[in-house]
Amino acid sequence: MSYAGAVWLAVQEDLYRGVCSEPTPKILNSDSSSNSADPRATDKLSHESISRLDIFDDYFLSQCFHFTRQCLTFIVDCIKARMKKDVFRPSSDANSIEAMTLAALYFYAHGFLPRKITAALGLEHASANDAVNTVSKVLEDMCTDFITFPGTYDDRTGVALGFKYISGIPNVVGVLGWLHVHVSPSPAEESLFLNTRGYHSVMVQIISDVDGNLLSVEQCCPGGTQEEAVWESSDICQEFNRLQHGQTWVLGGKGLCKAKHVLSPVESSRIKTNAARRFNTAHSQVWKSTQHVLGCLKTRFRCLHNLGAVLVDNLKPVARTITACCVLHNISKKFSVPLPSKLVLEHLHPDPEMKQGEQEDFVDTEEAIEDMIEMCFGNSGDEEEQEEIKTIEDIEKRHKQNGDHNSHEKFF
User: Fold this and answer.
1) Least enclosed by CB within 10 Å: which of 96, 99, 290, 394?
2) pLDDT one-digit tens code per residue, 254-269
């Protein structure tokens, strides 16, 4: 994935330091034989200039926040630097920013924020929600630093080669998918949020690379919105329309067969060759990688299982939380942070059924990718298959002509 140079170098430097000098975990109560600190014993932290990260051991940090110590240190330092230089935010001391950040990370990891955690971090529980909102806004502002689409020829080539290596499909620079997060809309707006799997959600458009890094995150909208409409109105689609990304594709489901710049599978009724079948198999393997990416997000950030009440004209709070989790996902990938529990693959939403007129429009897309399919997935055996199919079609044509022979005689 392509990152801003300074940010990526900072990550590398932190990784290097972590490898060369592993920090020694410190426990607040040194007389205890427990492997984790007791949060209830840390009320006095709010009055001491000591890092919370130095109080808890690695296991406790991992279980509470779903990140390693090195990754947490990097996240906290990034947010501190961002908040200190932002003249539009109230200034806070370093320990206060750290406490706010850890409170937000706990909420992302578990979907709730108990009093014992806010007490351990030295925060007033009444102000915890404000802390989470503030940190979410900071992380959202950092999105362009950590979630970037390959913008140069070399970057696109690198991403495309990754997809070509695992699937044989060329010129693919991302997999297009949608993250659905359960919400509770008002009764008057329920129909807008009802998705194809039968529950109410907001949906966010994501594009990921072959390694599961997020390249683009945008377009938070009600879960009942048509995917093609979301894609066509997105900023990244407009960039493709302006040919900013060259002659490349994003790979998407068959429900996007009419969408521009989206490489969808060949519709089953139009498959005529083994090459098309092999292409669909390769397409399916790459497309299903979306399940893994979405599953990783919901396994590490359990708040994404349900974000509660929402209004259609005010999706910013939930969009901010989702974007914050996506930023943290990419950071965790760079630090190779393991998932906190067994990965549960996300079920993909069924593609909408195409009407007859829409199926006819699919021909243009099929013709556009036909040469690529034959070049990359065809072989000499297909030539014989094509001849056999042509022979069968000729025979059927002759039978049809013979059946109408009497009517044809009138014209000769």
Assistant:
1) 394
2) 888 888 899 999 888 8
* Residue 227 pLDDT class (50, 70, 90 cuts): very high
pLDDT in tens, 12-68: 455 444 433 434 334 444 343 444 444 444 444 444 567 888 888 999 999 999 999
Phi, psi of 30, deg, nearest 5: -70, -15
Q: Between residues 80 and 12, which one has the greater pLDDT?
A: 80
Q: pTM value?
A: 0.80
39 or 378: whose pLDDT is higher? 378
What secondary structure, in 3-state letters, does the chain show? CCCCHHHHHHHHHHHHHHHHCCCCCCCCCCCCCCCCCCHHHHHHHHHCCCCHHHCCCHHHHHHHHCCCHHHHHHHHHHHHHHHHHCCCCCCCCHHHHHHHHHHHHHHHHHCCCCHHHHHHCCCCHHHHHHHHHHHHHHHHHCHHHHCCCCCCHHHHHHHHHHHHHHHCCCCEEEEEEEEEEECEECHHHHHHHECCCCCEEEEEEEEECCCCCEEEEEEEEECCCCHHHHHHCCHHHHHHHCCCCCCCEEECCHHHCCCCCEECCCCHHHCCCHHHHHHHHHHHHHHCHHHHHHHHHHHHCHHHHCCCEEECCECHHHHHHHHHHHHHHHHHHHCCCCCCCCCCCCCCCCCCCCCHHHHHHHHHHHHHHHHHHHHHHCCHHHHHHHHHHHHHHHHHHHHHHHHCHHHHHHHC
- The conformational region for residue 353 under phi > 0 = left, psi -120 to 50 = alpha, else beta, is beta
Please report the pLDDT score of residue 382 as a whole number. Answer: 52
pLDDT tens across 292-308, in order?
999 999 999 999 999 99
CA–CA separation, 381 vs 389, rounded Å? 13
